[in-house]
Amino acid sequence: MPQTQRAVRQVVFVDGVRTPFGKAGPKGVYAETRADDLVIRCIRELLHRNPQLPADRVDDVAIAATTQIGDQGLTLGRVAALLAGLPKTVPGYSIDRMCAGAMTAVTTTAGGIAFGAYDVVVAGGVEHMGRHPMGEGVDPNPRIVAEKLVDPSALVMGSTAENLHDRYPELTKERCDAFAAASQEKYAKALAAGKFQDVLVPMAARHAEKGYAVVTADEPPRPGTTVEDLAALKTPFRVRGRVTAGNAAGLNDGATACLLAAEDVAEELGLPVRMRLVSYAYVGVEPEVMGIGPVPATEKALAKAGLTIDDIGLFELNEAFAVQVVAFLDHFGIADDDERVNPYGGAIAIGHPLASSGVRLMTQLAQHFEEHPEVRYGLTSMCVGIGMGGTVIWENPHWSGESK
Amino acid sequence: MTQDLTALATELFPDEVVTKAPVQFFDLPGHSGKFALITLDNGFDHTKPNTFGPGGLVQLGAAIDAVEAAAENGEIVGVGVTGKPFIFAVGADLKGVEVVKNREQALAIAQAGHDTFKRLSALPVPSFAFVNGAAMGGGVEVALACTYRTISSGVPALAFPECFLGLVPGWGGCTLLPKLIGPDAAVTVIIENALSQNRMLKGPKAFELGIADVMFEPVAFLEESIAWAEQVINGSVSVQRKEFGAEEYAAAVARGRQVADSKVHGAAPAPYRALDIIEKMATASDDEGFALEDAALADLIMTDELRAGLYAFNLTQKRAKKPFGAPDKALARPVTKVGVVGAGLMASQFALLFVQRLQVPVVLTDIDQERVDKGVGYVHEQIGLLQLKGRLNQDQANRLKALVSGSLTKAAFADADLVIEAVFEEMSVKQQVFAEVEAVVREDCVLATNTSSLSITEMAAKLQHPERVVGFHFFNPVAVLPLLEIVRAEKTDEASLATAFAVGKTLKKSCVLVKDAPAFVVNRLLTRFLGEVTAAVDEGTPIEVADKALEPLGLPMSPFVLLELVGPAIALHVAETLNAAFPDRFHVSPNLAKLVAAGKKAIYKWDTGVPVIDPEIVELFEPGTSPSTQEQLRDRALKAMAQEIDLMLSEGVVGEAQDIDLCMLLGAGWPFHLGGITPYLDRAGVSQTVTGHRFLAPGVASLPE
Predict the structure, then answer these.
(1) DSSP string of B218-237?
(2) B97 or A117: which leads in pLDDT
(3) Domain segments of chain B as ranges
(4) Which CATH class is domain B522-652?
(5) Which of A42, A176, A258, A383 is catalytic?
(6) Which of A233, A324, B406, B632 is most buried, judging by how many CB atoms fall within 10 Å of its CB?
(7) What ipTM was reported for this prediction?
């Protein structure tokens, strides 16, 4: 009998890992490391860390990359699954929603789990911005210009951040620099406290002249950065502008992956439950101010969950640009230095290898949940190129029930 | 030392492809401290593996200087050595051995390896080899010098090829391997594998033997190796090693000597030197072992046997892949269908080989359905056996079986690009077959013959297109022996010849271009040589004396065992053919003819495991009254070979003496230490005596003068 009625299943976040992030470019730690190898390493480590999961129970592998060319092409999810040692019976595919690639890999496969098509999936993303600079091989439709559909600045992410400053004059460069310096400081503290040890996958990286090394730490952070240092930086997107290399995420190489499962299957297999998926939403905004995307996305996700912003006790917001995070905080009436926001620092310090970042946010939120049983709900949110925002709301399985 | 070595590198070996050894320092993932990782990398991809010449040793020495200083300052907790992608290191650069001019230089190179490698054992922190890819000889010895080893399950080859070439593993191999994995396993790796056509170990087998402490999959080999190293360093993992007693050493070395005797019959010094060192390691210290290795290497590098071995190695590795005198590859025509005339055993073996390698339709024809069915059935059965062995999966087996068919009419060859005949060895029959084939095939279809003794020019003479005929002389067993003599007849054109070479290469054979001359190369030389031995027996030399005469050469088998393998009837037939062509030089033995007439297949009976001369043979033979001694017969046989080779070269049967040697190495299995045969004839002075000149200039396959 075909099943005509079904219950939606709970989706849980089991485990997440990432490679240490590197600086893109010829001097970066991954300058001569293949992008697919980065994400293969993450998938491999997930299997290694969760031996109670039979590899053939993985129902799909969704891997995101923005530039799906060369070592980020060839139906990356499938190829990476094969090369990571998953059985040939495990399928895979590729996903692209620019910066929200890995986030979309999670929400799309989560939909499949909820529907009953999957029990366990691997979702992740990779971006090697050294090998594949943003915009590599793009061919924008001439109608975009001819019909003035979108301001040409919409395709330059830094320019969209400057546009956001224009829209909200109260978001000053000083606030953004202060937020950026705090991000570096929070990261340094978290690092010193050993917060990244359990989520980082050591990655062998070869350099033709220097030989092999095993990368065990993030390369982008600049500990000790002060607002004075930041004030002195150039504004590459606009003369006398506000967006600098210091108050934005850099160009980075890195990969992430996570395991998701139906809650009952996690129980059956003895897999840990680190977060429970509550709702998610993606919303389009004007591409020229793509940084505002998280605001309507969060409102939509909250509405779907029947929650308000006051129910959210922890935030992992992607820091593509300080200005878009601050715009989000202003909108929801949250202070720039609220300790619920990005407690370990964010992409300004850690880096933002585009399509991989969504799962980094989730992995860190899962860590915060463990440390904060008093918090019931948290969210991960990010702005997305071509004018979008994406938000995923999660419930803390460790919630003690004492407060919200 | 470094200065001397740098000087030696510049003086001796300015063209060395230097393997560099950069060092990177990084924090261990579990925060146990800093680790130093040395990467061996010559800057090329995996097709040009890392090797060690004097320049490479200087580089590794400098890397060890850096890690040693860091270790002494307490900056690091461990040291690792790994290779470039797919390659760890494949040992000493053989070109660097060829250029050594005197024993002092040889000794300096031997000692330089030890002086460098042993520092890896003496660091104040543990050292680890992460064997990520192919490792041979000196590469394995770098790993043995480390305190611990990890190996990738994807390692395609790990071996000590030294004894195969004429050396000993002399940078620590003979000393350290028996202590690590036990003398018996060490004898297997160093002696038995090396002397069995240089057999190699794959990663899992090397791990099983204990060469590595732990094995990881290639996908995360280096990361997991580093994680394991960290566990060893912080004490959460400890490695137990076995000890081996004097009896085990004695038994292993005795077995090793038996193996060496059975393979080289005492004629090559290297395996015996290696066994001498292994034997001493029952009680000797590492440094004593290293000193023995230094002396052995210095001695062996200055032997003609080694130089002949290196020459032979280069022939089989390089010349065999680029056949001398072959036409431009671009002239080759594609072969999309193959016809085989005949469906007997030889024809069926051809069909199997062609379908397996070319993966195109292969049609067998014969005179009645029963034979055709039997031929096709044989090929299908063999494909089934390959499937059972796991060499083919079901789909591949289905594909190959479907490609093989039989036909009673040669019309099935109409769209073939190559037709090979394997019918009765009789000129008129072969001419008839080719005429029938020509009537149905396209005019550019290549016609190949597997004749071993008939004139291919004559076979082609009556055809409308004789330019399409080539000889394809395989060696039995066709699937196993690597040599293919490709024969150019008088009118063979370049395109047909190029097609033949392209097919030969796809068949994975080593092809040698030969002229259409009686019995080509291998059979002609073996027959000349057997002719001298049988003549000596006919004259009254006892069989057992005659059969031992060539033992000092270390040939793979004695003349009469060879006769048995070839089959006395075939040997007689080839002798008669050659006698007809060159009656002065090729002896047809009346005793051999009697043996064939009596239906005898062998001289020896093997019932007891050791060969005993069949008493019926002794009855049958009518010996003469002027016996030779072993020395006399050896002298005579070697002189005959020198004369025959000289004639073959002047007739242009092959381009150069190197091709004769390549044929004898690959077609007759003659040993590396003879260099095939011409280096030995030069070395023994036989070529000079017989022909007034050497076959090869001094230094080509011998010590430089």
Answers:
(1) GGGHHHHHHHHHHHHHTTSS
(2) A117
(3) 2-160+172-186+198-242, 329-515, 522-652
(4) mainly alpha
(5) A383
(6) A324
(7) 0.93
